[in-house]
Amino acid sequence: MKRLTMVSGLLVMLGMPAYAEENPEAIRDEIRRMKAAFESRIGALEARLAQTEAAARQADAKTEQAARSAAGNTPDRADGFDPEISLVLSGTATYLQRNPEHYRIAGFIPSGDEVAPGPRNFSLGESMLNFDADVGRNFHGKLSLSLAPDHGVSLENAYIQSRHSGDGMGYTAGRFFSGIGYMNQQCLDDWDFVDTALPYKAFLGNQYKLDGVQAELRMSPENLSVEWGAELGRGLGFPAAEGNDGIAGALYAHVGGRAGMSHAWRAGLSYLGADPKARGYEDTDALDVPTRNSFSGKSRLWIADFVWKWAPDGNPDVNAFKFQGEYFHRSETGILSCAGGNCAAGVSDRYQAAQSGWYLQGVYRFMPAWRAGWRHDRLNSGSLRLGTALDPADLPVLRPYTPSRNTVMVDYSPDASSRIRLQFARDESRPGGADKQLTLQYIVRLGGGHDAHE
């Protein structure tokens, strides 16, 4: 149709000179008609172009809205509840040469039943249910529930934390694991061995957590990473006491960096101060009659930690080695009370102790999914001073002793969400001979994002 119109117009123009002499008014009419037809076509094209541009703008707006929704920046996302949920399952099959009942680390006030090597035979381990979600654009929240094999449920973590990257201040409020030391904040499924080191058992009851607030300052001067932290709150469990009304405080500093492409390191110093009130534990007197003892006073703990990691060209997926160690020193002064047995209705007097402990361990990834590790940990019961009213014979768990343990393990991790580990330990943490312990463990993480166990 367009081609026919053009041909017609050309014929009209070719015949225009002769036709103009005969009827000029008709030619003017023909020109006006052609002009009107062209203007109508141009208008239609402009209308179609406007519609196309409007459709494109609408598509861009929908794309931008979808991107904001995926990033969690829309009001609906920020005000809603869409957490990341994960579940950690674990279990063990254990052979223990010595009976684990009434396990105590000799020379130290017992820190709780959870430090024992675990039951013999097959056993379901602790399960963890985790909820993670952003709170608007500035905060992050986490809730962790511990599901014990005996049907007990306890609240491990429940906190809100400011979101910040790089340098600057960060804040945490609620119930959380303290930032002291190197291993204290690590989840159970991130441990390199089935259990934690002896110093953590003796001085922190495995892990120290508190209800309170934490402030951290991070800086990066000259290719270093520096972290300063301060915590204040009510300590939960050892070295404080359950239901303790006192305030516990902690300070820590960590500095780390890289040495070339293949090496990374971190060193730190931490301090924990607690004022336990009636922190109780069970013992026996000189005649093996059960007693109930308690300590009230001041507990001061220092921790020095160091870790060095090696991975060829910074890639730990094939080969990697991690070496770490921590040194603990604790001093406690206060009043020790003994009730029952030879202590009769109750005896109280001065108690003062200075104790220490340390561990060293190395873990080598010799194949992408396989690792092997060794750990040596040791404690020193140190010096003990008792008031004259207290008879050391009626406090057998506090007799001088030097607990130690050697542990080797090999584990297989087909992916970042599962691990199978075989571990052997020669445990000499209590008198009466070494306890040879063999444990087969599995750990599986369901749901949620999780980095590799390294």
Average pLDDT number? 86
Number of strands: 18
Taking the sheet with the most strands, its summary is: 16 strands, antiparallel, barrel
Second rung of CATH, namely the architecture of the largest domain: Beta Barrel
CATH structural fold name of the largest domain: Porin
Structure class: alpha+beta
Q: What's the Cα radius of gyration?
A: 36 Å
Number of helices: 5
Record the SSE blueprint.
Blueprint: H1 2-14, H2 16-22, H3 24-70, H4 75-79, E1 84-96, E2 121-124, E3 127-135, E4 139-147, E5 153-162, E6 168-177, H5 198-204, E7 209-219, E8 224-236, E9 248-259, E10 263-274, E11 279-284, E12 290-310, E13 320-339, E14 347-367, E15 370-386, E16 404-415, E17 418-428, E18 435-446
Antiparallel strand pairs: 1-2, 1-3, 1-18, 3-4, 4-5, 5-6, 6-7, 7-8, 8-9, 9-10, 10-12, 11-12, 12-13, 13-14, 14-15, 15-16, 16-17, 17-18
Task: Explain the overall architecture.
By secondary structure, the protein is of the alpha+beta class. The protein folds into two domains: 2-70; 86-446, Beta Barrel (Porin), CATH 2.40.160. It has five helices and 18 strands. The chain has helices at residues 2-14, 16-22, 24-70, 75-79, 198-204, and strands spanning 84-96, 121-124, 127-135, 139-147, 153-162, 168-177, 209-219, 224-236, 248-259, 263-274, 279-284, 290-310, 320-339, 347-367, 370-386, 404-415, 418-428, 435-446. A 16-stranded antiparallel β-barrel has the order 1-3-4-5-6-7-8-9-10-12-13-14-15-16-17-18. α2 (16-22) crosses α3. The longest helix is centred in the N-terminal third of the chain and has 47 residues, at 24-70. It is elongated. The termini are far apart. The model is unreliable at 2-8, 10-14, 69-78 and 450-454 (pLDDT under 50).
